[in-house]
Design goal:
10 helices; transferase; eleven-stranded antiparallel β-sheet; globular; 2 domains; Tumour Suppressor Smad4; Rossmann fold; Lipid_Phosphate_FormReg; four-stranded parallel β-sheet; alpha+beta; binds adenosine-5'-triphosphate
């Protein structure tokens, strides 16, 4: 074992937390929770330094720089402690992984996470408490990192490469995220602390506006073409949209991604299929639902559609993706036998 690997796996190496805070996550709730979390860190007498996100995308730059400057040493193991939502975690993972991709001598820093966003789907998938104070207490008790799958894609059309902890969705979920995160309605509802209602409002908008589109799916099992796709989601774990079970048996330990394609032949048929997903998680048994579990998948779309990655807006484009699985060490209270 190399000195670096030893330092990374040893439980005895003194820990240092680089705390990445996005005060804007959770409609500003992270900003409100942060003073209490800071006090708990001080009380726990752990070594930490705070890095506040100053603009959208800043967390990626911070995590990338920290991966370069804080490589494990025999006398210090730095852990990136993310305080925010799924988007902040997404940016942190991308900072870490892009640094390692560009310099093979680097190892990925482990990521700890305290959920304080609005959706918190990753926290749900790893059974981390949604209460930031409880989650922090459990995270501080962790003694070693564990590696989980993360998704990775290359968008050939836009020469773009990205990593994701939750999912990448094109069509219906992409449209809801794009219109909600960008909307005046959300800002107005946030002002009266009803920001959570923005998603249901835009759900019905998307139900009327989202038309069926074509997608070509290529895996090592063969190629399929769907002419009436409405939702095409590649996911690393079961949840999207703040707790909706899109792929009930998706696992972050199987080295595979789950792809769910839902077709739309009429508004009522798609609404029924979506309702089965939300209420009973039984949508995958229906004829108009298609499910793949695969280490690699290529998705080629026929027209511009909205995309979302970990709840972040990707924009309306003609996507041409190759997906595969990468690995990321997490500093989280996971049990070995925990089903993930
Ligand atoms: N200083 C900042 N000012 C404005 N926006 C910021 C700033 N720093 C980060 N952001 C943006 O905040 C957005 C929301 O963050 P995040 O996704 O973590 O919270 P959320 O949307 O409430 O949570 P979830 O994704 O779990 O629903 C991200 O897109 C991020 O780029």
């Amino acid at each position: 074992m190399t000195e670096l690997a030893q330092a990374q796996s040893s439980t005895a190496v003194p820990r240092h937390y680089a705390v990445l805070v996005n005060a804007f996550a959770g409609n500003g709730n992270t900003g409100k929770a942060w003073p209490t979390i800071r006090k708990l860190l001080e009380k726990a007498a752990v070594s930490f330094q705070v890095y506040e996100s100053e603009y959208p995308g800043h967390t990626t730059i911070l995590a990338r720089a920290l991966t370069r400057s804080e490589q494990p040493r025999p006398d210090r193991q730095t852990i990136l402690l993310v305080i925010g939502g799924d988007g902040t975690l997404h940016q942190t993972v991308n900072g870490v992984q892009s640094a390692v991709r560009d310099d093979a001598s680097l190892v990925p820093l482990p990521i700890a996470y305290v959920p304080a966003g609005s959706g918190n789907d990753f926290a749900r998938a790893v059974a981390l408490p949604q209460d930031p104070e409880k989650a922090l207490e459990m995270v501080l008790a962790v003694t070693a990192p564990q590696t989980l799958d993360i998704g990775h894609y290359v968008d050939h059309r836009h020469q773009r490469e990205e990593y994701f902890t939750n999912n990448v969705g094109v069509g219906f979920d992409g449209r809801i995220v794009s219109t909600t995160n960008d909307s005046r309605i959300k800002r107005a509802l946030n002002r009266i602390h009803l920001g959570g209602l923005a998603y249901p409002v835009h759900f019905f908008g998307a139900l009327f506006k989202q038309r069926a589109f074509s997608v070509r799916v290529h895996t090592d099992q063969g190629t399929a073409r769907f002419q009436n796709a409405c939702l095409v989601t590649t996911t690393n774990h079961p949840f999207f949209g703040g707790g909706i079970t899109v792929a009930p048996h998706a696992s972050m330990r199987d080295g595979k991604l789950d792809l769910v394609v839902l077709e739309r032949t009429s508004l009522l048929q798609f609404f029924g299929l979506f309702a089965l997903m939300v209420l009973f998680h039984s949508h995958l048994k229906r004829k108009r639902a298609h499910h793949y579990v695969t280490a690699k998948v290529d998705l080629t779309f026929g027209a511009p559609e909205f995309g979302q990655e970990d709840g972040e807006i990707m924009g309306e484009h003609i996507y041409d993706f190759s997906f595969d699985v990468c690995h990321q060490p997490f500093w989280l209270p996971l049990r070995d036998n925990q089903i993930l």
